[in-house]
Amino acid sequence: MGLNSLWYCLRQTFVSLHRNCWLGVASAAMITVTLVILGTVLLIAVNAGHFMRNIESTVEINVFLDDGADVPDLRQRLNGLRGVENHTFISREQALQELKESFGEKSDLLAGFEGENNPLPDSFRVKALEAEAVPALAHQISFFPGVNKIRYGEEYVDRLVEASRWVNMIALGAVILLAAGAVFLIVTTIRLSLVAREDEVGIMKYLGASNWFVRSPFVLEGIFVGLTGALAAVTVLGGTYYCLLAELQKVDLIFFLRPVTDRETLAPLFLGLLGLGVLMGGAGSWISLRKFLRV
Amino acid sequence: MIHFFNVSKVYPNGTAAVSDINLKINRGEFVFLVGPSGAGKSTLTRLIFREQLPTSGQIFFRERNVLRLGQRELLALRRQIGVVFQDFRLLPRKTVFENVSFALEVIGRSRRVIREQVPHALAEVGLSGKEDAFPAELSGGEQQRVGVARAIVKKPQVILADEPTGNLDPDTSWELMELLERVNRDGTTVVIATHAWDIVNRMRKRVVALDNGRLIRDEAQGSYGHGA
Ligand SMILES: Nc1ncnc2c1ncn2[C@@H]1O[C@H](COP(=O)(O)OP(=O)(O)O)[C@@H](O)[C@H]1O
Ligand SMILES: [Mg+2]
After folding, report:
1. What whole-number distance in Å separates Cα of residue B206 and Cα of residue B196?
2. Backbone CA torsion sign across A268, A271, A273, A277
3. What is the ipTM of this complex?
4. Where along chain B do its domains lie?
């Protein structure tokens, strides 16, 4: 198909978009809402993952020892471990002392646990040199002789993961419903412009127009609607996100939360949303044309 | 040019529209398909255009089996056939010029070709000067001449006309037939389904008569029927 056909199809697309202007706007808006919600979910997920990785890495590794573990030997092994910044031995007495301090005025509750009755084990506190290495380090240390248990705050992380999983699931359900609604609206838009041009399309087939030629103005129309909606969504999301970053910077929360700002993560996310908008528009047109165009 | 071998068509609702048709139409012929309403004339034209597929039998168009065409070849077939309808089927919001140029646009012809061929086709049907009129501003005969211009503008091998005079008065009908005869004299094969017996009798062309889906008569210089 040549340039002539392409030109004709483009003209048709804009003529019928103009004719069903409001329905087109409604469909685009629906796509915008869908993609904004989906984008928000994705941004939250990306940031939550990032945040959790930060927590995991800044926390110390608590290495609890068996009774009668060989402390000098372990110290040597920790010295020989790569990626360890420093480590401190905490005796069970020290641990109890710290616990008492954290209890403050109520420390006498722990009165019966001194000496022989102390239930706390000896431990090492290990700080990692690099953030990401914590889980791997913890894993390695767990195989040292005399090591009973390892803790590095994974419970918090697990709980966060659990919570964000629920949030994601609910939001994803909403996105699926909205996406279905958006596609339905696009199908309606295309159907209307089909009805407006039904006689024309019928005659086109008699004149020997290819399916491609008959279809493309409608598919282009859907894609255009999808792309418009997606562009609006990306603008809204991107704008809001960067405003939010600026606000966080003002209140100094940025160093605690450390939101994702790198292009390698954000660009594919936003491009993906654009692509999804186009896909929804195209799919909507395709669905509405499927029945109609049997030559 | 068009060749039917034992062609039958049974519609999904069980109606046997045409039965066991054997028919050969040569290049440059002028053929009337006649018969009472429901005889199967329209079905036969639809089979040539492959708007319908036969239930059994084979159809050839210029040595090609119409039943075995791929998507591209089907389009090529349709581009070699110009169709004229009883109800004209013009686009009301397009001018005369645009209605005719539409036939070239949908098959991807360039603007240059369009500017060249559309006035030519309009001149041939005697509508020069009416380019900017809308169909509603034309008489029935003029509208049908736009339909003919649209059919011939792509220079087809065959013109298929299904009751082209069905909505026209006798004088206009006669003029339209003369127009189609002129098109035929330039070498285009013309197939007309009609039950306008007076015209058929006057033109002394080949007549293929159908009744109840069967081919009952095929005369080189025929008339509509014995009774008429
Ligand atoms: N699309 C269709 N579906 C079912 N039956 C049809 C269809 N088109 C035509 N028929 C039937 O086939 C027979 C032949 O019709 P048609 O080819 O239109 O005859 P004609 O054009 O000679 O009047 C008639 O009985 C008609 O009712
Ligand atoms: Mg008929």
Report:
1. 14
2. negative
3. 0.80
4. 1-80+156-228, 91-155
Residue nearest to atom 7 of ligand 1 (CA): B11
Considering only the beta carbons, identify the residue of A8, A206, A295 that sits closest to B83. Answer: A206
Say whether pLDDT at B199 is over 50. Answer: yes
Percent share of chain A, pLDDT over 70:
89
Q: What is residue A161's predicted lDDT score, i.e. its pLDDT?
A: 66
Is the CATH number 3.65.10.10 carried by domain B1-80+156-228?
A: no
Q: B165 with B85: CB under 8 angstroms?
A: no
Level-2 CATH architecture, domain A60-151: 2-Layer Sandwich (3.30)
Atom of ligand 1 nearest to the CA of B43: 17
Q: B177 with B188: CB under 8 angstroms?
A: no
Contacts of B161 in chain A (CB under 8 A): none
Contacts of A11-19 with CB under 8 Å at 24 or more apart are: A12/A197, A12/A217, A13/A217, A13/A220, A13/A221, A13/A224, A16/A193, A16/A196, A16/A197, A16/A217, A16/A218, A16/A221, A17/A193, A17/A221, A17/A224, A17/A225, A19/A193, A19/A196
Tell me the C-alpha distance between B78 and A1, whole Å: 16
Backbone phi and psi for residue B207, each to the nearest 5 degrees, phi listed first = -125, 125
Model's pTM, two decimal places? 0.68
The secondary structure of A95-132 as a DSSP string is HHHHHHHHHGGGGGGGGGGSGGG--PPPEEEEEESSGG
